[in-house]
Each structure stands twice: as C-alpha cells, then as structure tokens.
Amino acid sequence: MHRVWAEIDTSAVRHNLGVVRQRVGGSKTMAVLKANAYGHGAVEMAKLLVGEGIDAIGVGDSGEALELRDAGITAPILIVGGIIPGEMPRVVENDIEVNLHTVQMATELNAEAEKQQHVVRVHLKVDTGMGRLGMQPFEAVPFLHNLRRLRNLELVGMCTHFSLPYERNPSFTTRQIEHFNLAVEVAERLGYSGLTLHSSSSLAVFEREDANFNMVRTGIALWGLLPGDLHGHADALKPVLQLKSRILFLKDVPEGTPIGYSRTWYAPAPTRIATLPVGYNDGFRTSLSNRAEVLVRGVRCPVVGRVSMDYATIDIGLVPDADVGDEVTLIGRDGEEKITLAEHAHWADAIPYEVLCGLGRRVARVYT
C-alpha cells in the first residue's frame, strides 16, 4: 500500500504510440524519454517501447542515457541535448549517439573516440530559430566540409528544433523548415547520404506534416497530451497517468479553525478536515494551496490551508462517509468526476510538463 502513487496505464502508452505512427506513415519514431520519461519512469517506459519496436530513444543528458544502458536497453539512444568533455569517455564506451553543436565539441569527441578505437554516430543540430543549442545554418557548411577529417565520427543524422510549432501564424516555423532544408541540401551535395532527418516534436507531428522528414521525436504525446493543441488532435490520445494519495488523518473542526502554516484558511463553518501524506516534496506544489481540488469518493473537495513539504489538507465536509485510508485522486478520474492534468497545472501556475517532471522520488510508479 502506497501513501502517494502514480498509476501509469501501459495500454494507453501503446495506443498513443500507435496514433503517432499512423500520423507519420513511413517515418521512423524516436521516443523522447528525458526527465525520467516525463515522470513516468524512463527504464520501464524504454522497455515497453522497445518491445513495441520503437526506432530510437532520445534523452536529455548522458546520465539518462547511461541509466538506460545499465538497465540493458540496447536500442539506439541519442542525447538530444549537449554533453561536456568529462562525460565523453562513458558516452563513447556505451555506444551512445550524440548531437553535435560546435566544432570544439566534435573535435574533443573525435579524440576520445580515437583513444578508445571506436566510431561514434553523431547528428548535426542546426539552429534555425530556437537559439538554444546547435549551429547556425551558415556554420554548418564549413563544418560539414571539415567533418570528414574527424575519422572517428560518423554523421548519421541532422536535426533542428522548433521554437513554437503551433502558432496561428505559421510563418516562423515555415522559415525554420526552409533553413533546415537548405542545410540538408548542402550535406547531400557534399556526399552525405542516408541521413536520419528529424525536426518534429509531438505537436508538430500533428500540425506540420511537411516537417516529419524520415523520423519524428515524440515525448508528451506518448503520455496522452498535446499542450498548445488548437485543432483537437489530442482527442485521439488517451491519458496515461493518474496521481493518487489517501486519507491519513481526519478531524472535525468548528467554525473559525485555522488550518496550516501562516493560517491562510479558516473554516467558514463546522466541517471535517482530511490530511493527505503528499506535499511539495512529491510535486504537489505550494501554489495549489487554497486553489486546487481533489476527488474523494467521486466528489470534488478543495485543498485548504498551505501545502507543506509532506502534507496537504482538504475540506471533506461534503463527503461525510469518508474514512482514513480512502483513496484520493489528485489527477485522474473517480466515478463520473475527473481532474485533468491541464486543470491541475492551471491551479499550480505551471505547464503540464512541469507537473509531470516534478513528481518526486517518493511517488511510487504503479504500472497497470
């Protein structure tokens, strides 16, 4: 029995992967499992998706890549972010693919690969407008010329990253695609062939078919979400995660009773308060204080008082038969009622990504 847990529906993950695959046709699919698979458990999700024949896995840094290798994942893994020199020896040793952003990075990685007598598969990241990582398109031209001298690097892919693929005016994204196509054309003229080309993240898969190339990178869509969706594409996806806790303690309080740190809430009438063993250490944020709702026996109950590190309190005056040990749904469905991740994120002054990635280590992941 858990105090706080996330129920993860693996059949929904499979369904969502199928929706993405149907959308992209013959293009390959990379599952982006950075940030512990957006809070869903990277190792478990990698094993599930490898079993479904995923073409590649994307991670944020070398630590995430090595975690998967140590767990026995042998599928292609690309570090979609950057790496620093101290990380290179184990990256080379474990056959992990790397996004290149600078000439210096390529030179240092080649030297390490030469030392280990290994060839590292690399992708060239082209910065077409995100402004975060990658080479400017004009820098890619001389780099591709010089890359041939780095004998221990094999260019297998090129990619870019959209800054906002779901704008009502798509002109900026269209320009990003055009700049990326120019860089790809240069690479092909220089004799680089058979490259894996990828630019689309989850929403772009649905919004920009002209950007799917021969591989797409999908992360949030696997979990049943498409933040920024303007056209109802998310209707085809199934929610994957429910967040739950249980009632630890019950107390009847008279009118005027203060609850929690700083006495931010006073009972406006006699009521019953339930204490839940979940707090901001678990990802249940203080910004939810006196704003969020949860479900107890299918009834919406408000979070009252300030959420603390380990506990939250709720007013269950509308659920007189509630008892210690009852399940409490923080995100998800209970009976006819549901609290969506988007609703929860709104109360938390956050985006859904933050909520998922912020689930703490004490939150047990239960796969159903």
Summarize the structure.
With 368 residues, the chain is α/β, with parallel strands linked by helices. It has helices at residues 10-24, 34-38, 42-51, 62-70, 88-93, 103-115, 137-147, 171-189, 202-207, 341-347, 352-357; strands at 4-8, 28-32, 56-59, 77-79, 97-100, 120-125, 153-159, 196-198, 215-218, 241-246, 249-253, 258-259, 265-266, 271-276, 293-296, 299-304, 312-315, 327-334, 337-339, 364-367.
Could you explain the architecture of this structure?
The chain is α/β, with parallel strands linked by helices and 368 residues long. The chain folds into 2 domains: 10-225, Alanine racemase (TIM Barrel, Alpha-Beta Barrel), CATH 3.20.20.10; 241-367, Beta Barrel (Lyase, Ornithine Decarboxylase, Chain A, domain 1), CATH 2.40.37. It has helices spanning 10-24, 34-38, 42-51, 62-70, 88-93, 103-115, 137-147, 171-189, 202-207, 341-347, 352-357; strands spanning 4-8, 28-32, 56-59, 77-79, 97-100, 120-125, 153-159, 196-198, 215-218, 241-246, 249-253, 258-259, 265-266, 271-276, 293-296, 299-304, 312-315, 327-334, 337-339, 364-367. The strands form 3 sheets. Strands 1, 10, 11, 14, 15, 16, 17, 18, 19 and 20 form a 10-stranded mixed β-sheet that branches. Strands 8-7-6-5-4-3-2-9 form an 8-stranded parallel β-sheet. Helix 7 (137-147) packs parallel to helix 8. The chain is elongated, with a radius of gyration of 24 Å. The relative contact order is 0.14. The mean pLDDT is 95.
